[in-house]
Amino acid sequence: MNYDIIYVGTGQSSIMGAYIALKENPKLKILFIDKGLMLNERIEAVSSKSFKGLSPIIYGVGGAGAFSDCKFNLDHRVGGDIHIVTGKDIVDELIEETLNIYRELGCDVEPMNSSMNPMVDHIKKSCIENHVQLVDTATMHLGTDGARILYTKFIDFFNNYNVVFETESEFLDIIKENNSIIGVTYKKDNNEINAYSSYVVVAIGRSGASKMESIAKKYSIEFAHGGVDVGVRVEIPDIIMKDINENFYEAKMVYYTKYYKDKMRTFCSNPSGFVALEKYDDGIVLANGHAYKGKKSVNTNLALLCTQSFTEPFNEPFEYAKSIARMTSMLTGGKILCQSYGDLSVGRRSTSERLSRLNIKPTLKDFVTGDISLACPKRILDNIMEFIEVHGKITPGFASSDLLLFFPEIKFRSVRVKINDKMETSLNNLYVAGDSSGYGSGLNQAAVMGIIATRDILQKLL
Ligand SMILES: Cc1cc2nc3c(=O)[nH]c(=O)nc-3n(C[C@H](O)[C@H](O)[C@H](O)COP(=O)(O)OP(=O)(O)OC[C@H]3O[C@@H](n4cnc5c(N)ncnc54)[C@H](O)[C@@H]3O)c2cc1C
Description:
Elements: E1 5-8, H1 12-24, E2 30-33, H2 39-47, E3 71-73, H3 83-86, H4 88-104, H5 118-129, E4 132-136, E5 139-141, H6 143-158, E6 163-166, E7 169-177, E8 180-188, E9 191-196, E10 200-202, H7 209-218, E11 223-224, E12 228-237, H8 238-247, E13 251-256, E14 263-270, E15 274-279, E16 285-290, E17 299-308, H9 317-332, E18 336-340, H10 341-345, H11 352-356, E19 367-369, H12 378-394, E20 404-411, E21 416-417, E22 430-432, H13 443-461
Parallel strand pairs: 1-2, 1-10, 2-6, 10-22, 18-19
Antiparallel strand pairs: 3-5, 4-13, 7-8, 8-9, 11-21, 12-17, 12-20, 13-14, 14-17, 15-16, 18-20
The structure holds flavin-adenine dinucleotide.
């Protein structure tokens, strides 16, 4: 079958790209290929506890965004670094354009910024005193429930056009002729199917990062290895985070550790939220977190991540991070490991009994108590503990026994595919976008990349 554009992966990048494509040219014939289920089937699968297939939280139409907290950051400094390829202005402009598309679809939540008051000044001053950079950006927060509404609206929109969704279809390979792409091969119901198009956008997210690497290697598409972010998801009573939660929408903090000089950062903070699991098809289980608009806990969760880059000859950051996750799974029988900071700092494992003596009740039930130091490399653990102590100086009570650490939280960064400022790879008309390109880690930049790639294709289709 022939299409005008094929989008591989149906996450934020592809959806935003296809949306602007159809707005500009309603006659286009578009194919979406996704390994997971259709969004309504994902929603059913998530509520059915007995579901056994690929994790419906990560895979399927709507991508990881559909079951995310849907915090949409309005700044190029957050969510990736595609601006190093395109420049900052275009990224900020397209973030604004995406926000307007959300509004067009009726998802109109006012973006939030930090307040201006003496407490904000105090926190900012405290960050400066403790060598912490505060990245204070405006954010639109739809919440996990709002995210599903948004992506359902996109699908309703696509249903009015010549759009085919091939779900439960695994992208296997690309088809090329000379130095140009001419289509892709995917597997559905054990059949290998070829679909043809002169323009293909591959946006298979974090879950498709290793597939992206194998395609790049196979076809000598130029790429560089990126780093990896390994850390913990921490949970603490809301009362400890009150000053930050009430005055900043999300206070993103960056800190370089004193001994190793490694970068630590806070990520994805969820006031009154819930710690969640991310399950991948290779059995890896990672910690994450989210917040609902309509359902609240009494705890705040956030990630503390350590960025680890490697030097020659090591070039397997992805495998390195996966090995950490596998090691943890080995210790826990395939679950997330939980330890209180009190236990970690005195070098003993946590037990359910010790956790029951704390003030905090974990929002996640499916974990095993233990000792993170048995699974986490020393350098990363030292960095995490140093950052917790520094955070405690800015947020009194943070570095306490009541801080629960869920390990591991890992942000796999895909290999960085070499692209031009239109997202096109060294193989003609093969575009990459979103997390699997190696430049993205958030919804804002995934949208930007999907739009840039698509606009270039629309120009070529003229
Ligand atoms: C739990 C969670 C919460 C998050 N919260 C936020 C947040 O609040 N704010 C924010 O900005 N970012 C958040 N993120 C990150 C954000 O979701 C991603 O950056 C964004 O979704 C990336 O979009 P994408 O289009 O690159 O890929 P994705 O949205 O990941 O979509 C990729 C798609 O490709 C499919 N796929 C993968 N491999 C294959 C294959 N071989 N064949 C066919 N299909 C394949 C998958 O099924 C998936 O549907 C969160 C992520 C997670 C996991």
